[in-house]
Amino acid sequence: MLRLPARFAAVILCFAPLFRQLTWRHAQVLLIGAILVPGQRTVTSILRISGLCWERRFVNYHRVLNRAAWSGRAAGRVLLGLLLDAFVPTGPVLLGLDDHIERRRGKRISAKGIYRDPVRSSRGHFVKASGLRWLSLMLLVPIPWAGRVWALPFLTTLAPSERYSQERGRRHKALTDWARQLVLQARRWMPERALVLVADSSFAALELLASLVRQDVTCITRLRLDAALYTPALPRQLKTRGRPRTKGERRPTLATVLADQATPWQRVTVPDWYGEGERVVEICSDTAVWRHAGLPVVPIRWVLLRDPSRRFDPQALLCTDLAQEPLQILRWFTQRWQLEVTFREVRDHLGVETQRQWSDQAIARTTPCLLGLFSVVTLLANRLSRHARLRVSAAAWYSKQRPTFADTLAAVRRQLWREQGFLTSRRACRSRKIRPALRDGIVHALCYAA
Predict the structure, then answer these.
(1) Rg (CA), the chain
(2) Which of 150, 176, 183, 321 lies at 20 to 30 Å from 165 by C-alpha?
(3) What is the DSSP string of 39-57?
(4) How far apart, in whole angstroms, are the C-alpha atoms of residue 246 and residue 227?
(5) Tens of pLDDT, residues 372-410
(6) Cβ–Cβ < 8 Å for 393, 143
(7) What digits encode the pLDDT tens for the residues 10-23?
């Protein structure tokens, strides 16, 4: 069994109470092995890198995912607590919400569907993808040793296709219904903290926004340029019959405001525009009531922005907190891009879309665990950064000043291998011998890395 470094024990052992004693021994091997193994994140690959390729009871490790009794939601709560203590002990909590398509095929994957591929599609080109749709809630925090904001997943759920629900006689939940449940679950875990949620236009739904406003969650998302905006309703007069009014006079659409030559524009500098540094944009902002027949009425602050150099098309944002400054709304919303970066990193470095589970229980657990592993690796690297600076993989042809997630994962792996005796310090008076089974697993991983 792989040894757990003392520096990492304070983080990893926090998850031990969620499992039974024997299940935890197997789960700990899967956790550490998933960090160490390159390529596919299958249970068999993890057992090989852990030196357990001749373990006759290998089925017990599969049962951690497809049969053992433990709660992924409880694990998400523990992970969120660790992330808050490490990176956001006080102040408002910025959350990011987005969906991700995991490309999976097979007759036994019953929850899969056909969706629009957001990575390969564009405005004029529509691409379909068959797979599983996951909805992930992430914590957007600045990482001190990385020098930028990272999106750290802590709660992920599977949003099955409509066909899956019909075959089982269940009511189909829309993506906004799953989103509401995730955010309200986070609100229950953080009742005293101010929550700010950033999401893309898929979640610009009046029912979802109204539900979050009732729970005191500020939501920032895109707004259609042709949205129906109104002035707030006047106070109800005495002795007035009928229902109270929900809106006032109709206001011009944002497309009309954009085309109006008399619109006052203000130039502001956004400090970090999607990782490209500072960007000067022109904005105008006001408050209004967004209403549609038969749906809740939501007061919003809208922000219309355009690029003086015309490098991107004009767009509009909304914020359910009318007192927020437009520049602060822009700063929060531009951090949403880090969610896409996290999805790319977990595909490239943590093996998402390479797992081979077929049972419904294992499928529902494996991908959230791999996304949560991104946050666990960040927590482990944060403990290493307290004692030494993380190494940066740079070269004469590749200049890099700050560590990326690939460097972070390498630093955590280096510490784990050092604990197993594979890496020793030059100052060590004696070296620890590595077990033959573990050595064979390492050699197999290196030889079959491609």
Answers:
(1) 25
(2) 183
(3) S---HHHHHHHTT-TT-TT
(4) 16
(5) 999 999 999 999 888 778 888 878 888 888 889 999 998
(6) no
(7) 999 999 999 999 99
